[in-house]
Amino acid sequence: MNNKGRSSVQGGSLLISSVPLLIFRGVVVTLLISFIFLALCTAIIYLSPLSESLVPYLIFGGTLLSILLGSIYVGKRTDEKGWLRGGLTGLFYVLVLIILCYIFHVNFEPGFNIITKFFLGFVFGTLGGILGINA
Question: Does 3 map to a domain?
Answer without folding.
Answer: no
